[in-house]
Amino acid sequence: MQIKNLYSLILLLFADYVNAQTQGTISGIVTDVKTGEALIGVTVRIPDTQLGAVTNLEGFYTISDVPTQTVSLQASYVGYETQNKFNIVVRSGGVPDVNFELKEAATQLDDIVVTANPFEKLEETPLSIQRLSAEEIATYPGGNNDIAKVVQSLPGVSTSVGGFRNDVIIRGGAPNENVYYLDGIEIPNINHFATQGSAGGPVGLLNVSFFEGVTLSSSAFNAQYDNVLSGVLQFDQRDGNNRNFRTNFRVSSSEAALTTEGPLFKGDKETSNTSFIASVRRSYLQLLFQVLELPFLPDYWDYQYKVSHKLDDYNDIILTGVGSIDNFSVNVPDEFDPEQQASLEQVPVIQQRTNTIGASWKKRFKNTPGFMITTISTNHLQNDFIRYEDNVNEEGVLFRNDSEERETKLRYNYTRFSSDWTLSGGLSFQRVSYVNSTTDRVNDFEFVTDLSFNRYGLFGQVSRNFFNERLGLSLGIRADGNNFTKDGNDVLSTLSPRLSASYQLNKTQRWSINASIGRYYKIPPYTILGFQDNAGNFVNQDANYIQSDHLVLGIEYLLTDASRLSLEGFYKTYENYPVSLTDSVSLANLGAGFEVLGNEPIASVGLGRTYGLEFLYQKKLTNKTYAILAYTLFLSEYTAFNPDSYLPSTWDSRQLLTFTGGFQFGNNWELSGRVRFLGKTPFAPVNVEATNQQDTYPVLIIDYSDFGSQQLDPFNQTDIRVDKKWNFPKWTFNVFFEVQNVFAQQIPQAPTFGLARTATGTLIQPQRVVEIEEIANSSPLPSLGIVVDF
Question: Is the pLDDT of residue 317 over 90?
Answer without folding.
Answer: yes
